[in-house]
User: Which sequence fits this backbone?
């Protein structure tokens, strides 16, 4: 059981480049989430998917898009990266949909935008 | 504006003592509150969840209280050990849909 996996672990982009952060979970969880964590700030929710086939905006969705490809996978896309998107990105999943539940986090992707 | 406040200063504590962390919030009415642990370079790990109608929750050496009148949660680590050194995050679930709002975290350093 790998839990929540994220690729890549590290990435450096130039301003304007695009990339997709990948996330997969093998726990058969219904809900998945994308957060960013910046120094001196708490984790902030970017997008979430309560169940397969649904996605919704979180607190800081601007500049990002997501795809819930299937029950296992939830990707985050930066169409035109900006320095303000330099951050550590965490994917998480939870078993239950529409109710409070433990969230299981991946190891994170460290993104630098120059 | 909505705020979740955790102490920005690290808590240095002697091994064996009880560490107490505070999470205060304003302009939120959370239905649930969760605590996570985060080690450097890693993702957060869930520790405890407490509901608004629960006053206290325990798990091994950990204890959480939730006072909706004071808008505060306290997190206690009893008989602290060097392995407890980490950053502890408070997270609020406003509506029970598991969309969490996190505090900045409070670092604990347990000195042997």
Assistant:
């Amino acid at each position: 059981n790998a839990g929540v996996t994220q690729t890549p672990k590290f990435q450096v982009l130039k301003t304007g480049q695009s990339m997709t952060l990948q996330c997969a979970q093998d726990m058969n969880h219904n809900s998945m989430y994308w957060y960013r964590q910046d120094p001196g700030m708490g984790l902030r929710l970017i997008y979430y998917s309560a169940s397969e086939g649904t996605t919704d905006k979180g607190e800081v969705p601007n500049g990002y898009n997501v795809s819930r490809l299937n029950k296992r996978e939830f990707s985050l896309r930066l169409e035109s990266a900006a320095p303000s998107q330099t951050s550590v990105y965490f994917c998480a999943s939870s078993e239950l949909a529409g109710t409070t539940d433990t969230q299981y986090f991946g190891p994170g992707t460290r993104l630098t935008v120059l | 504006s909505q705020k979740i406040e955790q102490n920005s200063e690290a808590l240095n504590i002697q091994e064996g003592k009880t560490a107490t962390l505070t999470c205060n919030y304003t302009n939120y009415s959370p239905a649930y509150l969760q605590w996570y642990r985060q080690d450097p370079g890693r993702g957060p790990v869930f520790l405890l969840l407490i509901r608004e109608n629960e006053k206290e929750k325990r798990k091994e050496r950990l204890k959480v209280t939730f006072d909706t009148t004071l808008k505060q949660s306290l997190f206690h680590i009893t008989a602290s050990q060097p392995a407890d050194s980490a950053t502890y995050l408070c997270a609020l679930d406003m509506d029970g849909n598991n969309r969490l709002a996190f505090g900045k975290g409070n670092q604990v350093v347990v000195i042997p």
